[in-house]
């Protein structure tokens, strides 16, 4: 088994969201959201702060209940494996990088964690504890942990928000390679339009709890930045409420 085979998911999940409504008390955070993700599709969700991005991700993770409508994550008509990666690495300080990557896996699946750690370039730091690793390395362990579970749906909530620009660029390249290999359906919440355009095939813009824009990113990956400039400018304007929808 090669390391990439070990972390390859069994294909991507299908996500179906219909008429989704989420309220916290009297406050409506998501309203009449419709969304369909095909297996292997990569979608970025952008939008103003408080627009409901994280809430949508949490609904798909099963962490937040819905008030109305439905949200389903399936694979071949069964519930699909879902993993979430957050802005904070959420590593346990008393566990080694490998033990963190293997957290929650049954013992016979531990080789998947070893393979995932190798895939993020940290095979030689398997015995290191989180405090002995840089911020970028810790996020790579967090990514390895998510991938070791071979998720059919990978949910990323501002996963690189706390990293410096250089480290973030390295993570983008790594994530693109690993996602190509795993085939997982991916939903990325980000504030960074460049990150969205680099990693996703489709960008959703949430405004006031609704999908205001749902646009396909043109061209094949890796995409030339210059070709994306018109879409970037359009999304930038829409993000700040200035552009037409
Ligand atoms: N558990 C909760 N109880 C009450 N209100 C909440 C809860 N979680 C989120 N909210 C509110 O719901 C709204 C949407 O929050 P959410 O985190 O989904 O937005 P977001 O688009 O991800 O924002 P940001 O970009 O700032 O992270 C916000 O106004 C937030 O204060």
From TrEMBL:
Domain of life: Bacteria
SUPFAM superfamilies cross-referenced by the UniProt entry: P-loop containing nucleoside triphosphate hydrolases
GO molecular function: ATP binding; ATP hydrolysis activity
Matching Pfam families: ABC_tran (PF00005)
Keywords attached to this entry: ATP-binding, Cell membrane, Membrane, Nucleotide-binding, Translocase, Transport
Coiled coil location: none
Domain ABC transporter per the UniProt entry, residue ranges: 15-233
The name this protein goes by in its record: Aliphatic sulfonates import ATP-binding protein SsuB
Encoding gene per record: ssuB
